[in-house]
Amino acid sequence: NSYYLASEQVGDYGTNKSADDFANGDVFVALHSAEGGYVWVQAPGDKYPTIDINATSANIVVLDWSTATDSTTLKDEGFSEGDIVVVKGGKQFYADGEIYEGILSAEQVAAIGENKLYPISGVKLENVSGKLVATLNGNSDETLVIPTDVEVGKVVYKRNMVAGALETFMVPFSVPVPSESGVTFYKFKRIAENDKGRRYVVKVSKVTETLVANTPYIMVANSSITQIEFAKSGENLTLNSMEGPYKTEAKTENGIVWTMKGVYEYKTFGADDSELGRAYGFAAENIGETKIGEFKKVAAGATIQPMRAYLVYEKPNMQARPAVTGMKSFAIIPEMPGNISVEIEDGEEEPMVVKQITVVPTVVKSNRWFDMNGRALNAKPTAKGTYYYNGQRIIIK
Questions:
Q1: What CA–CA distance (Å, rounded) separates 172 from 276?
Q2: CB burial class (10 A; 0-12, 13-18, 19+) of residue 310?
Q3: Is residue 210 a contact partner of residue 175, using CB atoms and an 8 Å limit?
Q4: Would you say 172 and 264 are in contact if contact means Cβ atoms under 8 Å apart?
Q5: What pLDDT digit, counting tens, does each position of 27-42 carry?
Q6: Residue 397: how many CB atoms within 10 A of its CB?
């Protein structure tokens, strides 16, 4: 028997185990347990590299991370010559053009040397015919973190898109607009006020050349699709999620600022979120009378998935002059609009398509429970207290 890397723990069998302690056909790998001993986990033998059974007495260095933001080195992780190095199941590290996952070979350990290892989250890197391919899952809630430049030959962006629906979009790389993707991309351009500020129109224009890294956009698929492929002829794409701007600003004629903000982390609007009442998000699914692609004013419990964006009405900084000496100045904040429309313009700002988007002053429902801080719960809570469910405040007694 040999020992293999796995991502699921099936039991803690203590230390000093050998092949004689397992049934015929069992395949295990040794990982450190919280108590300092070995945890033996099971996996299919054809998926992972092997560790010789005689090497299990060696020290095992497990590379892991909870937040993929900081780099590390083998020395930082306590590595000594002869140690076995294992990347925790389901996770990846990146260094100098190479992916590191599973049980590392002696050659891989030597290649790393004293170089920095960067944890990668929310993207799957694979070596395909000698080139790295990155897969971004736009349907996932996993936080996207790419803390260094990662060069890839192609990006596959997976996302279930409905034909004709407006959707928001942000990715960590710059790339020419894919001409055969069946998707049209638009950039946030300006805000127009109608009816003396009682109605706002979001003006967007078609992107014809380059999508800029870490910049929010709006996109529309011509037909229902499940993925978009991005590539640059003769060149690699550079992925890095750490360099903004993550937003695009536009002003009304009166100087009021609206911001399209992109996110790489699953965002939940808590009850104390400063943007409540000023933020608008696209509905991700058909819920009741709300359809996919409609802009809705968010409330506590509303959520935004990674690699998406939402619209925020920024509070004005202007101060009114006190009418009486000594009276405190106050900010003049116009009433929030009840409806917002999106108007798509061409280069000469001639309207091409007009989409009316109804803004409903309620939360984007998701059939999920949230606590008062906006944290999502796995199921209906049993403890007494006040919670949010589908935008409604629920008291459990």
A1: 27
A2: buried
A3: yes
A4: yes
A5: 445 444 444 444 444 4
A6: 4
Average pLDDT, the chain: 74
Percentages helix, strand, coil for the chain (3-state, rounded to 5) are: 5, 45, 55
Question: Residue written as tokens 């999620």?
Answer: 241
Model confidence pLDDT, tens digit, residues 60-91: 788 888 777 779 999 999 898 888 788 877 78
272's CB contacts (< 8 A; 6+ apart) are 373
Q: How far apart are the first and last CA of the chain?
A: 55
- With contact defined as beta carbons under 8 Å apart, do 248 and 260 qualify? yes
3-state secondary structure of 53: helix
CA nearest to 216, candidates 194, 249, 183, 190: 249
pTM across the whole model: 0.72
Residue 348 tokens read as 């000469």
Pick from 297, 336, 298: which is nearest to 315 by CA?
Answer: 336
What gap in Å lies between CA 365 and CA 302, rounded to an integer?
7
